[in-house]
Amino acid sequence: MPAATYNLTRILLARASDRFVFVPVRSMQMLAIVEPQEFNFVHSETRRTIDMSWQNFAPGVRAALDEPVPHDAVYHTENAAPAMLRLQGEFLRALVLLAARSAPAGAGGVIDIRRR
């Protein structure tokens, strides 16, 4: 998985009050349910069936934050494999859009920490 995708999911999960994030991938009519250990993808036509899951992330094997994260892709339906290549790019675009919409609105402040 590209580093940008993995890193952005971690940012969105940190902002979420729950332990998951719903990411609509409108261009493919899919919904991603992003959890810390697994991403599940469901199609709008088969809402009760998971088409594909990304799991077993191994971010610790990379030497830098801009390196890809190894993971397993598990296909639960016949149509999932052909959609995988397109989904990688479309999912990142959906993440970027969601992150922009949910970005913190307030300005940060600097805290002065002095030794006594």
Report on this model:
With 116 residues, the chain is of the alpha+beta class. The chain has one domain (3-101). Helices cover 30% and strands 22% of the residues. It is built from two helices and five strands, in the order αβββββα. A five-stranded antiparallel sheet has the order 1-2-3-4-5, with helices on one face. β1 (21-25) and β2 form a beta hairpin. α1 crosses α2 (80-101). It is globular. The chain starts with a helix and ends in a 15-residue tail after the last helix.
Give the SSE map.
Elements (H helix, E strand, L loop, with lengths): L2 H13 L5 E5 L4 E5 L3 E6 L6 E6 L16 E4 L4 H22 L15
Antiparallel strand pairs: 1-2, 2-3, 3-4, 4-5
Helix pairs in contact: 1-2
- Mean of residue pLDDT? 89
Q: Ends: how far apart?
A: 47 Å
**Strand neighbour order, sheet with most strands:** 1-2-3-4-5
Low-pLDDT residue spans: none
Question: Largest sheet, described in full?
Answer: 5 strands, antiparallel
Instruction: Quickly count the domains.
Output: 1
Order of helices and strands: HEEEEEH
Number of helices: 2
> Could you say which overall geometry the principal axes of the C-alpha atoms support?
globular
Number of strands: 5
Cα gyration radius (Å): 17 Å
Helix content: 25-40%
Alpha-beta content class: alpha+beta
Beta-strand percentage? Answer: 15-25%
